[in-house]
Each structure stands twice: as structure tokens, then as C-alpha cells.
Amino acid sequence: MLEKLTDPANVHISTPSQHALKLIEALLEREQQPVVCEVGIGIGATTAAICRLLANRGTYHLFDYSSRLDDLKPDLDGLGFTNVVYHGNSRRKLDSYNWALAQMLLARRAAGGAVPVFDFVFLDGAHAFHHDAPAALLLKDLLKPGGVILFDDYDWSFAISPTMNPAVFPQILEVYTDEQIKTPHVRLICDLFMDHDPDYQKVDIGYRSHEHRRAYRKLGPKEPRPA
User: Fold this and answer.
1) What phi and psi, each to the nearest 5 degrees, are found at residue 216?
2) What is the DSSP string of 38-97?
3) What are the residue boundaries of the structural domains of the chain, listed by start?
4) CA distance 127 to 156
5) What is the layout of strands, in order, in the sheet containing 59-65?
6) What is the CATH number of domain 2-153+198-218?
7) Distance (Å, rounded) from C-alpha 27 to C-alpha 120?
């Protein structure tokens, strides 16, 4: 898969997320064996960069289509990265990474120990409410106190997508309402489930006006909550 990074056709998705890398760099300053999660790998740009940054420290969980993970695994194996755990799902219409996350949460609850597992999560999935809303809720339970979740494409909508907008892909009108096409689904998820949760604090990642990504830190049990 990583050969796609040099294809000019993929220039817009071949650059790693610098926000994700900076947040993991900060994490490594306090945790030498972090547990990191990435939901949605694209063509592996951020994934490969995170692997290099971790340098086989801790554990790196990947969630995406099984076919994508199967393409990526030989590349990461060949580069010597042995700390990666793969969680694949099918391409059936209503299957997605949120099912794998649900199974992980169930298993951790049944085990009777600590449920939270992730120190850092990068959610870069379908950017669609019916996939990413349940994923966000599951990830909130799976994130450790002090951990950070980074949402990608906070400002994205089907309407502004070069490949999914109705003029290019009219079939989208059969699946979503006009309001759903125009609304940034990730922003809606953050508005509903993150911004008003007293256990989460927005992290300043450098934006001053228009946000493309948004990050939140889960407060520890002894940290003060907003009044």
C-alpha cells in the first residue's frame, strides 16, 4: 500500500497528520509504552509516520477495512514494525470499525479489569454520523484518563467533497437528505458528545479561526471540572 504515497494522484492524502504526530510526541515524553489507536488508515501516510515515531514502543491498534489492512500489513512488517494490531471489518454496507470497537469494549468489560486502554486516538474514519457517532461514544470509554482523542475533518461535509458532492456523485441524494449533505458530520458529533461533556477538555492544537481537526483530553478523576 505505501507505494501509493508517491503516486501524484494521491498528493492530497499522502501527507501525515502533523497534529497527530505532535500529540504523540508529547505523549511519548510522559509515557514510553503508549497504546495508540488509529481509525481509518487511508493509504497509510499517517500510519507509517506514527510507526516510525513509536519505533516499536507500546502498541498501535489500527481499525479499517480488512482489505486495506491486509495491503498495509506486509509493508509495515517489511519495515520491521512489530507492535501493530489489526482490527479489520468487511465492506458490507452496515459493517464498520464501530463494530470492532464495540467488541473490544465488551471484552474489556467482561475481563473485569480496567476498561480504558488507549492513550491516544486518531479518528479519521468515514466522517459520516452513522459510523462515527457510535465510534466516538465507544472510544470515549476506551480512552484512558489523561488521554487525547483527535478528530480529523472537523469541517468536512459531503457538499464540499470533490468526489462525494451531488454534482459529481448524484447517488448520494438517494442516501442522505440535503441537510445531511451540507452538515459537517464530525462537527455535529463534537457538538453533541464532546463539547458539553465535563470529563473532556478541548486541546489547543494551533487553530485560531477555521478548524480542520479538533482534539479533546479526557480529564483524570481528581482534576477539576468546569462549574
Assistant:
1) -135, 145
2) EE--TTSHHHHHHHHHHTT-SEEEEEEEHHHHHHHHHHHHHTT---EEEEEE--STT--H
3) 2-153+198-218
4) 8
5) 84-89, 59-65, 35-39, 118-123, 143-151, 214-218, 200-203
6) 3.40.50.150
7) 8
- When pLDDT is averaged across residues 121-146 and rounded to a whole number, the result is 97
pLDDT tier for residue 219 given thresholds of 50, 70 and 90: very high
- State the first-to-last Cα distance of the chain, in angstroms, to the nearest integer: 48
User: Is the predicted pLDDT of residue 214 greater than 80, yes or no?
Assistant: yes
The cell for 181 is: 449533505
pLDDT of residue 17: 96
- The DSSP string of 123-187 is E-S---HHHHHHHHHHHHHHEEEEEEEEES-TT--GGG-TTTSTTT-GGGGGTS-HHHHHS-HHH
Residues 6+ apart with CB under 8 A from 88: 63, 64, 65, 66, 67, 68, 69, 70, 100
Helix (H) or strand (E) holding 27: helix 18-28
Return d(Cα 41, Cα 54) in angstroms, integer.
16
Q: Please list, in sequence order, all residues whose beta carbon lies within 8 angstroms of the beta carbon of residue 189, skipping any fewer than 6 positions away.
A: 129, 132, 133, 136, 151
Cell (9 digits) for 221: 478523576
pTM value is: 0.96
Residues 200 and 127: beta-carbon distance below 8 Å:
no
* Cβ 42 vs Cβ 82: under 8 Å: no
Q: What pLDDT digit, counting tens, does each position of 1-33 carry?
A: 999 898 888 888 899 999 999 999 999 999 999
